[in-house]
Structures are given as structure tokens and as C-alpha cells.
């Protein structure tokens, strides 16, 4: 057995023992009632999750998708689905996907929108075509809804493009705004339209309709709109005025007695107080510009590691936001230089070793529990640490999420076209990686990364494996001379629309996808606040915030991946991936 393996084996055995002790500590810090509201949220999610569906228009002749995705919720065993009118048309066919992967088709039925705004009441119904015993939710009552009442969203945000819904938590803030909608702080974005809003009893109280720029303003169609026009909506008709035939809205059951919910704020404050000093800011220079990003201190005290790490602190942060000569800024204003020990390109992590011990208590390595989050944890309260701001609370929305390189692939910024036997560059984008490397129109592309390129498809395949920030070699024929150019690939142009979902405070992270296994929560952190730790309300370390994906979603690298990265880095500092 080699010395390297023995050291690795010893570390793992030691940490396994410490993990057991940490789990015992976590049990002791729990107090009766601390998870009361959390348990209510989880119970409501279990009632509504299975019936919350993903949809898009579907061409049954071409077997192809015909529209953007949207959300809905099944409200009857026979498959009647409530959604928003602005995403549904009578008579059209829609693909329906349940969270368990079951798929079927539905037909658009009634839809009510009224000129000139075509906003109100924005109610629509669909019906599943196939016969079946479909999961469905219970409809609540608008008269039961109160200001500041907790509420839960289960819908499918477009930015994630997942086949399972995402959970968000909030409160009712307005029962009747200027447009006639309810409002909640359950944050929404495109794709969520038509999705359900539940109370703590798991009853449907609203359907998602729209948003304003503020993350706190999200429009909900009151459930009684559907109760009132239920019969009319079952007919295949596009209503441009309110239907004349209405259902009588009367209760045939007692008023909803909401479970008593303890305010979790004091537990958030307790966790924040315990670990606040583990979050620091890090400054560095990237492409000539100073960048600031958060980082998390981990303590290596009493861990048997190589001399370079003996009784030291290490800092974990977001790799794509760290230049080569970073400085850690402490709360006192003092700055400490750090060296980059390792980078993980896949998870966008970087490990820093300060030149001096920071004198702050870091997170002990025994807290890097390798527990795997699962669907039973959805709705759990989370606390995100921030260096210069108060903590940010959230709920766990999705687990085991994979996000392809949609906006973080290596972008060359050049177009090549076949001309005879040659593949020639026909366009070089200004300020692109191609221009910076000295590529020009008319150059013949011969190879990428030492692999021969014969056509446009070869070029696409050769570049597909790279991430923004990666460097490759491109071989060209420039006016009869064979040249090899070193090219540092960039991010593709960031698309920003006029939709309010693209204009929330702080905006999105530049590197926000290309991850293989992350969890998602609804923390409203800023891109430069990524790198901070995420805990549950008992103080259990769950992971590191790595990106603000969208208006609805912050994504985090789970503890098990953080553990693996740190173990590898302090065991072997020769390189990264």
C-alpha cells in the first residue's frame, strides 16, 4: 500500500469518525417546535407535488414541440387542469409531463382574456385526453386567504428546463391589486405561468399569472375565479368577456384552520451568529478589472495533513470570479494575500491558502457531511451566509439538478463555411476570442486542439467540450503559411430581454450553468455573494452557493462534492480539473 493511499485512507477514517460526532451534535441543538413551519411546508408539498405538471403545445402529426414551456395543476381525477390563459388556446393539443415522468396529452378548453389589457382574469382550463386516474389537488377558498399568510409555489421555471418542478416559499402580500390579482412573494419567472400556489394545508389558492420587476411582486389568479367560471371553462371557447353563466361559490366544508407556524427567524439568526465569521470577501483582478466574490473559511486544525496545510485555514470560493493574485478582506478591513491551490472547472470551485492564519474560526471539516439531499427534503429552510450583508433565508426547491453548458460553453466568436475543399472563416466577431487570437476572415481552419477539422460539424464538435475560460490551439492556413494560434475562449454573448425576469436587483451570474449535480433554492443573493456557505436551521453544512441562475433560483454545490474537492486538494496540490 503506497504512502499516498495510506494518507488518504487515514483522512477518510478520521473524518468518518468526526461526521458521526457532528451528527450527534446536530441532534442536540434541535429544539421542540423548531421545524414546525418547515414540517407544515413539507406536508403541503407532498400533497401538491404529484399533480403539478409541465406543459407545452404539441404537434401530434409531426411529433414535435411547438411552444415554450409552462405550468399547470390537475384538479380532478378525470384530468382537468387549471392554467393561465396567456399560455393556453382552446382546441390546441398540449404535452403534459408529471413529476414522476408519466406523459400524456391534453386539449385546451375554455380561456378568458378581456381587451384591452388581455390580462384579467387570465384563467384557462385543459383536459387530459387519455382516460386515467390522475393525481389531483384539492381546491381551496379565496375567502380563507389572509395577508401575510405563508404560501408555496410548485412550478417549472424556464431557466432550469427540468422535468421535475421547483419549490418556492413566500407570503401573501396583496389580496386585490390594481389589476384584480392576488400578490405573493413566491418568486416567479417565464415557465411558471399557470403553476399552482398552495396554502399550508396543501390546498390550491391561486394560479401564477405574471410579475413586476421587483422580486416581491408576483401576480396570482385567485382560486375562486376558477370556481366561479368552472362550468364555462369546461367548454371549448375563447371568451373575450366574462361568461354569463357562473357557478355559485359556497363552502361545503369548514373554514381552513391553518397549522400554527412558528417563526423560524430566531433560528436563522442563531445559525448566522455561529458561522458569520466564516464568510469573507475576496478581491482579485480578472481581465484588468477588480472583482469581488465571497469565500468560505474552513479550518484544518487538528487534521493530520501535509506540512503546507499544518494548522492552517483554507478558503473555498467561486473559481470563475477569482484572478491569480487574490486578497482576502477581513471584517476588520485588513487584507491577507492568498495563493490558489487548486481549481475545479466542473463545479467552478477554487481553493485558496492564505499566507497568514486568518485568526477566524472556520468551518470544521467534520461538518462536511456526505448526506445526500432528496425529495423528502424539499421545503427545508436554508440559510445563506453573506460577508457584508445579513444572512439570506430560502427553502430547498430542487435536488440532483444537472444544468448543461447553455451559457458557459467556450465561445470562439467566429463563423466558418465550406468553400470547395477548404473550411474558411467568413466572419470574426469584434472583441471575441477569435479576434484576440489574431484570426481573420479568409483564414483556412485546419485543426482545433490538434484534431483535424474538415467541415462545420467537425468544428462544432471540437469546440463543444470546452468551457468559457479554457484555452485551446487552433491551426490555420494564413495566406499560405501554416500557423498555430493560442485561443482563450470566452463566454457567449449574454442575452438580456425586456422581460422583468431579466431585470431583478443584482442580476444573474455570468457562469451559471454547466454543472452536473447541484441543489436549487430561492435565496435572493447577488452574483458576487456566491462562494458563501449554506446551512439548514440546525446548523448543518449543506453546500456552497455557486451561482445566481435566474430570478427564481440560486444554485449550490452540495456538501459531498465540497468534501471531495477539499480532500483531493489538501492531499495532492499538483493540479486541478
Structural class: alpha+beta
The profile of the biggest β sheet is: 6 strands, antiparallel, barrel
Q: Bin the strand percentage.
A: 35-45%
The rounded distance between the terminal residues' Cα atoms is 26 Å
Number of helices: 8
- Spans of at least 5 consecutive residues whose pLDDT stays below 50 are 1-32
Main sheet strand line-up: 1-3-4-7-6-5
Helix content: 10-25%
Approximate shape:
globular
Keywords: Hydrolase, Protease
Family: Belongs to the peptidase S1C family.
GO biological process, one term: proteolysis
InterPro entries: Chloro_Bact_Ser_Proteases, PDZ, PDZ_sf, Peptidase_S1_PA, Peptidase_S1_PA_chymotrypsin
3D structure, described in words:
One of its GO terms (molecular function) is peptidase activity. Belongs to the peptidase S1C family. This is PDZ domain-containing protein. The structure is a single chain. The protein has 577 residues and is an alpha+beta fold. It contains eight helices and 33 strands. Strands 1-3-4-7-6-5 form a six-stranded antiparallel beta barrel. It has a six-stranded antiparallel beta barrel with strand order 8-9-10-13-12-11. A six-stranded antiparallel barrel has the order 15-16-17-20-19-18. A hairpin with a 5-residue loop joins strand 11 (196-198) and strand 12. It starts with a helix and ends in a 6-residue tail after the last helix.
Amino acid at each position: 500500500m503506497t504512502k499516498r493511499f495510506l494518507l488518504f485512507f487515514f483522512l477518510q477514517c478520521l473524518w468518518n469518525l468526526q461526521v458521526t460526532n457532528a451528527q450527534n451534535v446536530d441532534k442536540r441543538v434541535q429544539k421542540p417546535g423548531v421545524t414546525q413551519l418547515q414540517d407544515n411546508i413539507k406536508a403541503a408539498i407532498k400533497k401538491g407535488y404529484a399533480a403539478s405538471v409541465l406543459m407545452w403545445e404539441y404537434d401530434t402529426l409531426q411529433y414535435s414541440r411547438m411552444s415554450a414551456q409552462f405550468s399547470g395543476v390537475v384538479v380532478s381525477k378525470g384530468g382537468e387542469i387549471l392554467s393561465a390563459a396567456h399560455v393556453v388556446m382552446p382546441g390546441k393539443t398540449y404535452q403534459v409531463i408529471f413529476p414522476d415522468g408519466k406523459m400524456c396529452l391534453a386539449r385546451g378548453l375554455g380561456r378568458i382574456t378581456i381587451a384591452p389589457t388581455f390580462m384579467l382574469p387570465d384563467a384557462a382550463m385543459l383536459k387530459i385526453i387519455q382516460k386515467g386516474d390522475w393525481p389531483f389537488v384539492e381546491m381551496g377558498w379565496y375567502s380563507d386567504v389572509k395577508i401575510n399568510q405563508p404560501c408555496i409555489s410548485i412550478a417549472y421555471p424556464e431557466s432550469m428546463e427540468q422535468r421535475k418542478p421547483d419549490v418556492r416559499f413566500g407570503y401573501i402580500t396583496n389580496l386585490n391589486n390594481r389589476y384584480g390579482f392576488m400578490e405573493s412573494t413566491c418568486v416567479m419567472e417565464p415557465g411558471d405561468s399557470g403553476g399552482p400556489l398552495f396554502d399550508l394545508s396543501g390546498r390550491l389558492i391561486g394560479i401564477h399569472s405574471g410579475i413586476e420587476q421587483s422580486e416581491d411582486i408576483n401576480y396570482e389568479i385567485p382560486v375562486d375565479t376558477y370556481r366561479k367560471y368552472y362550468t364555462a371553462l369546461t367548454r371549448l371557447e375563447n371568451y373575450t368577456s366574462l361568461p354569463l353563466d357562473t357557478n355559485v361559490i359556497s363552502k361545503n366544508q369548514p373554514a381552513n384552520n391553518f397549522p400554527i407556524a412558528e417563526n423560524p427567524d430566531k433560528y436563522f439568526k442563531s445559525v448566522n451568529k455561529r458561522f458569520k465569521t466564516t464568510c469573507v470577501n475576496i478581491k482579485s483582478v480578472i481581465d484588468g478589472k477588480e472583482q469581488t466574490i465571497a469565500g468560505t473559511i474552513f479550518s484544518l486544525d487538528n487534521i493530520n495533513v501535509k506540512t503546507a496545510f499544518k494548522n492552517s485555514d483554507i478558503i473555498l470560493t467561486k473559481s470563475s470570479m477569482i484572478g491569480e493574485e487574490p486578497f482576502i478582506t477581513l471584517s476588520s478591513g485588513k487584507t491577507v494575500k492568498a495563493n490558489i491551490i487548486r481549481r475545479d472547472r466542473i463545479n467552478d470551485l477554487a481553493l485558496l491558502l492564505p499566507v497568514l492564519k486568518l485568526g477566524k474560526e472556520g468551518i470544521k471539516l467534520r461538518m462536511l457531511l456526505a448526506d445526500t439531499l432528496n425529495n423528502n427534503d424539499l421545503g427545508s429552510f436554508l440559510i445563506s451566509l453573506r460577508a457584508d450583508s445579513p444572512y439570506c433565508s430560502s427553502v430547498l426547491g430542487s435536488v440532483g439538478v444537472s444544468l448543461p453548458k447553455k451559457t458557459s460553453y467556450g465561445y470562439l466568436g467566429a463563423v466558418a463555411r465550406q468553400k470547395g475543399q477548404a473550411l474558411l472563416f467568413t466572419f470574426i466577431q469584434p472583441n471575441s476570442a477569435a479576434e484576440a487570437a489574431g484570426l481573420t476572415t479568409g483564414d483556412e481552419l485546419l485543426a482545433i486542439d490538434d484534431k483535424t477539422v474538415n467541415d462545420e460539424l467537425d468544428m462544432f464538435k471540437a469546440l463543444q467540450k470546452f468551457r468559457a475560460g479554457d484555452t485551446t490551439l487552433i491551426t490555420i492556413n494564413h495566406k499560405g503559411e501554416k500557423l498555430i494560434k493560442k485561443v482563450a475562449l470566452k463566454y457567449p454573448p449574454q442575452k438580456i430581454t425586456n422581460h422583468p425576469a431579466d431585470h431583478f436587483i443584482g442580476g444573474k451570474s455570468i457562469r451559471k450553468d454547466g454543472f452536473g449535480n447541484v441543489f436549487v433554492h430561492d435565496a435572493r443573493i447577488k452574483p458576487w455573494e456566491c462562494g458563501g456557505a449554506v446551512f439548514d436551521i440546525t446548523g448543518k453544512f449543506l453546500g456552497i452557493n455557486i451561482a445566481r441562475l435566474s430570478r427564481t433560483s440560486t444554485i449550490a454545490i452540495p456538501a459531498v462534492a465540497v468534501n471531495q474537492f477539499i480532500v483531493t486538494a489538501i492531499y495532492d496540490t499538483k493540479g486541478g480539473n
